[in-house]
Amino acid sequence: MGQMTSPLMKTAITALLFSGILAGCGGVPERDSILSEARNAYMSAKNDPEVASKAQTALYDAERALQRAEAAETAEEMQHLAYLAQRQAEIAQAVADRKTAEAARAELSEQKGEVVLMSRERELAEKSLEVDQKAREAEQARREAEQLLAQNRALQEQIKELQGRETERGIVLTLGDVLFETGKADLLASANNNLNKIAAFLNENPDRNVLIEGHTDNVGTDANNVRLSERRAESTRIALVQRGVSPQRIITRGFGESRPVESNDTVTGRQKNRRVEITILNKGEQLRW
Amino acid sequence: MKLNLFHQRSLFLAAGFAALTLAGCGSSKQPPTEKLATAESFINTARETEARDFVELRRAEDKLSQAKIAMAKEDYEAAAQLAEQALIDARLAEAKAESVAAKQATQDLRDSINTLRREVNR
């Protein structure tokens, strides 16, 4: 043969070539699997309720990308667009995941708020109990302090009433001569008031002991005066014991005329010297002369 | 081999058609500089975040390199496609990174609540 192909053959080849080119430009896609992958990715995202509700924009972008892929005119373009579409669907999924996590976090934040509140309330309750406790203790201490203060005041009052004078050993009270029968050791009724007060004081302050000392003026003999002063001290002691004071707390002594407080040269001086001194010893003072 | 006129004309037509068709199939004569720039910028930003740990960002970087090579060869269509793919890979890396971060934050919050609950109920 001279020519390799007949005219008919040539036309056929041309036609084939032509259709082949056309086929490549938007006919049946060559790589079908990539497009179906993209379709599957899209459908799976679309059917996920989280994606549908939380990533609508991203999902829409995926849909449009898929549509572009479907409408691709070459295999290469379709492959490229399908790739984009699939990634787009994955993005939609990731966005939905993120938003779901954020929503959960918002809810949890509320929960945390409640728990924090509970925790604070419990702390407060505990603190409140502590505070109450402290307040009660403080109140207790205050009351005790007040009591002591009142006692002290009462003591001071009593001391004042008894008209005692304070010495380093205690309070010294004086029963004057007028309270005794003249020249005798018998106590008169007028002494009752004082004796009552002294006894009351001693009964209220059982930790204090008593010294009772009898004294006379210089009229008469020493011996008589000593005896009289002793007997007067004793009378006084009995009077206090009768009023409830324990005898163990009291010691007595007669000094006679040996310790005058004033000059025996005057009437008033001598009267003053005729006395009984009751010393209410301070707490802790030993009962001795 | 000598072709007669008929054959010559057919072939010419076919070739011309083919050229036209190929042209109609979207070959671009414009270099996609903007697409590459966008992709590059996005990738650079993503690299500074947690997205750097995701394989999708590696893919994006590879595609960007390939896009630059295609540009140098003046294969603009390929370059454009690679740039688009690079961008979407980077965006996917970012979306995943954000999702992971959100999940972690939620878990941390859950843990802290549980710890707090235990303390309160002590």
Can I get a quick summary?
Chain A has 289 residues and is α+β, with helices and mostly antiparallel strands. Chain A is 64% helix and 9% strand.
Would you mind describing this structure in some detail?
The complex is a heterodimer of chains A (289) and B (122). Chain A has 289 residues and is an alpha+beta fold. Chain A has helices at 7-24, 32-47, 49-54, 56-70, 75-162, 192-204, 222-242, 267-273, and strands at residues 165-166, 170-176, 210-215, 250-254, 275-281. In chain A, strands 1-2-5-3-4 form a 5-stranded mixed beta sheet. In chain A, strand 1 (165-166) and strand 2 (170-176) form a beta hairpin. The model of chain A is unreliable at 18-27 (pLDDT under 50). Chain B has 122 residues and is mainly α. Chain B contains 4 helices and no strands. The model of chain B is unreliable at 15-26 (pLDDT under 50). Chains A and B meet through helix 1 and helix 5 of A and helix 1 and helix 4 of B.
Protein traits:
heterodimer, A: 289 residues, alpha+beta, 5-stranded mixed sheet, 8 helices, 5 strands, B: 122 residues, mainly alpha, 4 helices, rod-shaped
Number of helices of chain B: 4
User: Can you tell me the overall shape of chain B?
Assistant: rod-shaped
| Percent of residues in helices of chain B | over 70%
**Strand composition percent of chain A:** 5-15%
Beta strand count of chain A: 5
Kindly state the number of beta strands of chain B.
Answer: 0
Mean pLDDT of chain A: 88
Give the helices and strands of chain B as they follow along the chain. Answer: HHHH
Which sheet architecture does the biggest sheet of chain B show?
Answer: none
What order do the SSEs of chain A take from the amino end to the carboxyl end, as H and E?
A: HHHHHEEHEHEHE
Count up the helices of chain A.
8
* Major β-sheet annotation of chain A: 5 strands, mixed
Multimerization state: heterodimer
Helix content of chain A: 55-70%
Stretches of chain A where pLDDT falls below 50 for ≥5 residues? 18-27
Unreliable stretches of chain B (pLDDT < 50, length at least 5) are 15-26
Distance between the termini of chain A: 170 Å
Q: Largest inter-chain interface?
A: A-B, 42 and 39 residues
Please tell me how large the radius of gyration of chain B is.
26 Å
Mean pLDDT of chain B: 85
